[in-house]
Amino acid sequence: MRTPDEKCLHFVLRHYQKNKLDTQKALKAFKEKYQITEQTRKSFRLWWILPGMVAAILVVVLIYPRFQENGAWKEVTAYSHPVDYMLPDSSSITLFPHSSVRFHAKDYQSSSRRVHMEGKVAFSVKHDNARPFTVEGKLSQVRVLGTVFTVDESRADTAVVQVMSGKIQFSAIGQSDTVILTGGMTAQVTGERKDIQIIKEGKTGSFIFDNTPLPKVLEELSKFYKVKLVANKTDRRLTASFKDKSLDEIIEIIEKVLNVRIEKKKQ
User: Fold this and answer.
1) Measured between alpha carbons, how far is 53 from 47 in angstroms, rounded to an integer?
2) CATH assignment of 205-265?
């Protein structure tokens, strides 16, 4: 079907003869015949543009995260792209697509660092002995003081926890039994089977350092344990050997021997 503007053009071209046809009069006659007004043309153009506007709005909604406040509760939702978010205590989280977290803002800052989640979320928790950090999903609960880990409940009736570094306390919702997981370990619970299943044991390695610059030591440890290590002092050198020790044990020894502070971050 031709648009009103196309009909106008077709009419003029079909009837035009040099020096015989007044185009302005022809257009005027055509519009009067088909009752085409300026308002009609504007309305038609609006209906032509509207689908594009709606599509653009939908794209924005699907790509950008939603930050919602419901009273004292805050909620962050990721749609088709991952979302990085900083919690009030400077702990950082990464929401994978189609995941969300919510927390009570006032309680989080004053007393209880508790986060409710759906989907798959990676956590890098700032250490705080006085206020443990708790993550609650539909199937699982994780309690930590400060570490790096991921909780994945994106599959139906399955919760998987992977610890990159540090130590966490893992349990199934409604169950009293808990399991301590350390860096390199992975465990899961399912809707049918409430007991915790260890999927992957912790990772330990053997290292020998002979007057090695601390940045080089941290680089090697970071590569092996797949976590970024950063020290507050980089002018130190280390002579030591480690065998079958966890990353946390190694860090604790280095901190005491070299009088430094080492921080674990997401890569």
Assistant:
1) 10
2) 3.55.50.30
pLDDT tens sequence across 7-60: 554 554 555 555 555 556 655 665 565 555 555 555 545 444 555 555 554 444
Structure tokens that stand for 38 in this block: 């300026």
All residues at 6 or more sequence positions from 8 whose CB lies less than 8 Å from its CB, including other chains: 27, 30, 31, 36
Q: Domain residue spans in the chain?
A: 73-200, 205-265
The residue among 232, 143, 244 whose CA lies nearest residue 184 is 244
Rounded CA-CA distance 151/60 in Å is 27
Between strands 205-213 and 237-245, the pairing is: antiparallel
The class of domain 73-200 in CATH terms is mainly beta
- Distances from the Cα of 95 to the Cαs of 62, 68, 253, in angstroms? 14, 15, 34
